Amino acid sequence: MKKIGIIGAMEEEIRLLKAEMVNAEPIEYHGFVFYQGVLNEQEVVLVQSGIGKVNASVSVVLLVEHFSVDLIINTGSAGGLAPELKVGDLVIADGLIHHDVNLLAFGYEKGQMAGMPTIYQPDETKSQLAYQLANQKGQPVTIGLIASGDQFISDSQQIKKIIQAFPEVKAVEMESAAIAQAAYVLSTPFIIIRSISDKADESASMSFDEFILLAGRQSAELVLDILAHFD
């Protein structure tokens, strides 16, 4: 049986998963609390990484190097940029990019970190499984590009800049591109599942506070479905 690492930035994003775990053993390691146990008959290690790209990257390294996980699943909330997305809709990443990285002066593409791909590719088979399971349950779901940066997007002008740079982006948040980069460096497959908590505009902070529990639960429920369908 493979061991699966699950990352959520906030307590609201891992609450359901922690409650559903069997034989959950809390393990403190380098300032993080990892929960090792069983979810839907899968061996998992769950961690609340904290917000932001550095925290997310460190959690990936610890999951892979210390807990020897074989797959990373990132679950949580995001701000919706695509006009068709509504609060509670699911977004499955088919690519991840840093929207706050700019090394154009050195010949790299917008969003590309030195020596790294411009876009990080999740595990296609498992991402498609997530998309199909959401569809089968009638949940509104989109598959597409997610952009990450170390800022909470809550301004229409910021949205315009991100869309101008990355026209295909569906949603923005603060961790998944870093998780993808760390997983890429460590040759570990990953998938990213997000639920929309806000529209990343001037109402974003109020919407986020109101809907983070809904978004966290929607995303976590899909994670549970995916685990139930793994071999």
Give an account of the 3D structure:
This protein is of the alpha/beta class and 231 residues long. It is built from six helices and nine strands. The protein is globular. The mean pLDDT is 93. InterPro entries: MTA_SAH_Nsdase, Nucleoside_phosphorylase_d, Nucleoside_phosphorylase_sf. This is 5'-methylthioadenosine/S-adenosylhomocysteine nucleosidase. The active site is at residues 13, 198.
Concise description?
With 231 residues, the chain is an alpha/beta fold. 35% of the residues lie in helices and 30% in strands. The protein has one domain (3-229): Nucleoside phosphorylase domain (Rossmann fold).
Label this structure with key terms.
231 residues, 30% strand, 5-stranded mixed beta barrel, Rossmann fold, 6 helices, 9 strands, alpha/beta, adenosylhomocysteine nucleosidase activity, hydrolase, methylthioadenosine nucleosidase activity, Nucleoside_phosphorylase_sf
Mean pLDDT: 93
CATH class: Alpha Beta
The tally of strands reads 9
- Proper CATH architecture: 3-Layer(aba) Sandwich
Active site: 13 (proton acceptor), 198 (proton donor)
Catalytic activity: S-methyl-5'-thioadenosine + H2O = 5-(methylsulfanyl)-D-ribose + adenine; S-adenosyl-L-homocysteine + H2O = S-(5-deoxy-D-ribos-5-yl)-L-homocysteine + adenine; 5'-deoxyadenosine + H2O = 5-deoxy-D-ribose + adenine
Protein name: 5'-methylthioadenosine/S-adenosylhomocysteine nucleosidase
Pfam families: PNP_UDP_1
